[in-house]
Amino acid sequence: MLILGIETSCDETSVAIVRDGREVLSNIILSQADIHAKYGGVVPEIASRAHTEAIYSLCEEAVKCVGIADIDAVAATYAPGLIGALLVGVNFGKALAYKLNVPFIPVNHIKGHIAAAYLVEEANPRQRLAPPFLAFVASGGHTSIMEVGRDDPGAPFCYTNFKLLGMTRDDAIGEAFDKTARAMGFDYPGGAEIEKYACLGDKNSVKIPFAKVEGSELDFSFSGVKTHIINYINTIKQKNGELTESDKYNIAASFTENIILSVTSRIKRAIKFTGHKNLVCAGGVMANGHIKDALKNLCDDLKIKLYIPDKKYCGDNAAMIAAQGFYEYQAGNIAGLNQNAFASVDWT
What we know:
Blueprint: E1 2-7, E2 12-19, E3 23-31, H1 33-37, H2 44-62, E4 73-79, H3 83-100, E5 104-108, H4 109-115, E6 133-138, E7 143-148, E8 162-167, H5 173-183, H6 191-198, H7 223-240, H8 245-274, E9 278-282, H9 289-302, E10 305-307, H10 318-330
Parallel strand pairs: 1-4, 4-5, 6-9, 9-10
Antiparallel strand pairs: 1-2, 2-3, 6-7, 7-8
Helix pairs in contact: 2-3, 4-10, 5-7, 6-8, 8-9
């Protein structure tokens, strides 16, 4: 089954073709990072306009590998995300599905990130991942720990059965990285710069409080960590006028270490609580080598299997939406032309 996926939840416009939820035939991505860099973050109205300008030509490019008439269904991100940006993808997807007389499949963006772990390259097959498993999603807008398919392993709808175990109460990890990077003088997006500088610093040089959420051991909180670092940076600037390269190395290393401890401690609790032997870690933050290495070490220590999507599928992309769309279709989750987009979702 060939599914055309559409992703427009934030600042990447993407269209992809995926066969049977696993094999990527095309995955075209147009980033708006350069457009938003001058503002230090994503401007929703500008993002929506850019999606509108790009989506048709990206669709034309994506379907060259198969032909538009070969498409069996259209899947698009409907939530969560920037509402204006989401509406571009949802409305384009509905119109295309109507024109082709094929089903339209609404896909949850966070479920899509997890489904990126199903994707394989034809020349590089890997062990086939299937529910049940534990999943951790970390990106610019989301930080969550979830169970997938625990109550119905092997059933057709196990790929669409998600249970939220923990989430961020304030900032997402990616957001904390970007705001810290901006305070350090790096351009948006600054996560890659922090990763590079962290290799050169002393991770114990800056004392950062370890954030906990009372009564919710699996929930995250990064707002206080980010604020502590920003205040620390401002104090140095008031005393010395500017940050030295050494200051930046140490701040990046200490901040990264705090994030790593926050993530690994909660995942360790979740594994102990659920007993899962497979862990999926997905989302744009998984491109960070320090976090990825820490998760690999954790899984080696706990003797569980770790699945991390290829780096090109960690960020927002349409292939992951098409992958999850395949399983949503199998579970009968088809939408009509009245399907709307939503900025948030309620997991309860």
